[in-house]
Design goal:
The complex is a heterodimer of chains A (300) and B (191). Chain A is an alpha/beta fold and 300 residues long. In chain A, 40% of the residues lie in helices and 18% in strands. Chain A is globular and about 40 Å long. The radius of gyration of chain B is 17 Å and the shape is globular. The chains are: A alpha/beta (300), B alpha/beta (191).
């Protein structure tokens, strides 16, 4: 099972766990409709599109409403702490929630008790709390944007809003240097997928791959197009791809889907996700190191 | 024997699962059940690239790819290099055609005798006429294949010459694989 956990900005939405389906442009989890606009919804949508194409089980999502008060986030953490061992997901992908270092520590301790340790992926606030709690190295993949890499690189910062030396860092070309610092200070997961105008895949401080093509600048201002990369990499990791390859292909797919969708700043993220199957069909095998054939879908 | 049911899975997943299964055994057999011919071809090509023996059976619309892994098949045999022979013509040299055909036959025969043998022979353009029905060098190529040399023919070229159904030795490849083979070779010998 792939489990994606995060909050959604829906007031009073109770903690909801279920296999994800899609209906009329909405995600459906445990009988509740979730818009695919940005954040966790975009991430789950991207993962669902990927598993659907590949023929894998759809992701499970553990969602809760939280409009910034933290109550939903605390319930989410606690549910995972109490149930992760029985859920036993192959991939645990964490997204938005109000950071809580103490509960993050408890969650990581609970994960260590699992018979089979899940692949741990974190983006956004779950990545902040993992880093701030000194547990970044327990994670397999982080998917930071430029500001977040600066946060990971700053040993003193406990949140991206409090970066000492890199306030409002936006220069993605500094990602390799900042990533090296992040690894030095134990602030990075095993693999970093640094998302930006150039995407960097970094392992143990070394840049494994740099992806800058196709160059689709209009993707940047579209809400959720960073979240989709995290959904993609989570699904590819669930599919059994090597983690660095999952990260590389995720970055490529997102860019190519932006190109296929002819995006403008007004494009919705769901229009980008809708292009994933076409990109998979045309490129997935070609981009995979084990397959290498032209085209991804056999038999078409 | 390990069985991988890859029905319903799109590429590259059948290959990913095959790779993981092969990594998990030192030697042995596995069968991959797959629905689509292209996926079957991708699994076959991957297994062969790992030095495994492969046979394919088709039954009730499904492909059963049987893979045999021998101990330490991944490493090149002592007499095998990482060199690639790239053959883009059906004869050797540019003079008389018949002489060129005789020289090509002699070249491939000698290649089978030589040590170290190349890791791969890639056939492109007119070269694919050597791997297909009616070729005078099929026996030599089959001996080379038995000796662990991978034989690949360009799929586009086979289609162009309408020889796809007449391939008699080795497997079909594409330009992606061809480029990768050339770039990763220790040495490329172009004929």
């Amino acid at each position: 099972m792939m489990l994606i956990a995060g909050t959604v900005p829906i007031k009073d939405m109770p903690l909801t766990l279920g296999k994800v389906t899609s209906e009329s442009g909405y995600l459906v989890v445990g009988g509740r409709s979730i818009p695919c606009t940005q954040g966790t919804g975009a991430m789950v949508s991207a993962a669902l599109a990927t598993t659907s194409y590949l023929g894998l089980e759809a992701p499970h999502a553990l969602l809760v409403g939280d409009i910034g008060k933290g109550e939903g986030s605390r319930k989410l953490y606690q549910y995972l702490i109490d149930h992760i061992e029985e859920l036993s997901p192959a991939v645990l992908a964490l997204h938005y929630w109000l950071p809580n270092m103490s509960q993050t520590r408890q969650l990581c301790a609970a994960v260590e008790k699992c018979a089979r340790r899940p692949i741990m992926i974190a983006d956004a606030a779950s990545m902040y709390s993992a880093k701030a709690a000194g547990l970044a190295e327990k994670f397999d993949i982080f998917t930071p944007d430029p500001t977040e890499i600066a946060f990971l690189a700053d040993p003193e910062a406990t949140h991206p809003a409090y970066i000492a030396r890199h306030l409002f860092e936006t220069d993605i070309t500094r990602a390799p240097e900042l990533a090296r610092a992040a690894y030095r200070h134990h602030g990075a997961a095993k693999i970093l997928l640094a998302k930006g105008a150039i995407d960097y895949i970094i392992k143990d401080g070394e840049v494994l791959a740099t992806i800058s093509e196709p160059n689709v600048p209009a993707l940047e201002p579209i809400g959720g197009t960073g979240d989709t990369i995290t959904g993609l990499v989570s699904a590819f990791a669930f599919a059994g791809l090597e983690l660095h390859e999952a990260a590389i292909i995720a970055a490529k797919v997102n860019r190519m889907a932006g190109k296929y969708a002819n995006v403008t700043p007004a494009t919705k993220v769901r229009e980008v996700i809708a292009q994933f199957p076409a990109v998979f069909k045309d490129y997935l095998c070609q981009w995979s190191s084990v397959c290498g054939a032209k085209g991804g879908r056999s038999g078409d | 024997m390990i069985e991988i049911d890859a029905r319903g899975l799109n590429c590259p997943l059948p290959v990913v699962r095959t790779k993981k299964a092969l990594e998990g055994i030192e030697e042995g057999e596995l069968t991959v059940i797959i629905e689509r011919p292209e996926g079957c071809q991708n699994v076959r090509r991957f297994a062969e690239s790992q030095g495994c023996g492969v046979t394919v059976a088709e039954k009730d619309g499904l492909f059963y790819v049987h893979i045999y892994k021998k101990k330490a098949v991944k490493s090149a045999s002592p007499g095998q290099s990482k060199n690639v022979v790239f053959i883009t013509t059906d004869r050797l040299g540019t003079g008389d055609r018949r002489l060129g055909e005789i020289l090509m036959k002699a070249f491939l025969n000698t290649l089978w005798d030589a040590e170290p043998k190349p890791a791969r022979i890639l056939f492109l353009n007119d070269g694919v006429k050597l791997t297909t029905e009616g070729s005078e060098v099929l026996d030599s190529l089959k001996l080379l294949e038995k000796a662990g040399v991978q034989i690949f023919s360009c799929g586009t070229c086979l289609e162009y010459y309408q020889l796809k159904d007449k391939l008699k030795v080795g497997a079909v490849t594409n330009m992606y694989d061809t480029v990768e083979s050339l770039l990763s070779a220790d040495k490329v010998i172009k004929i």
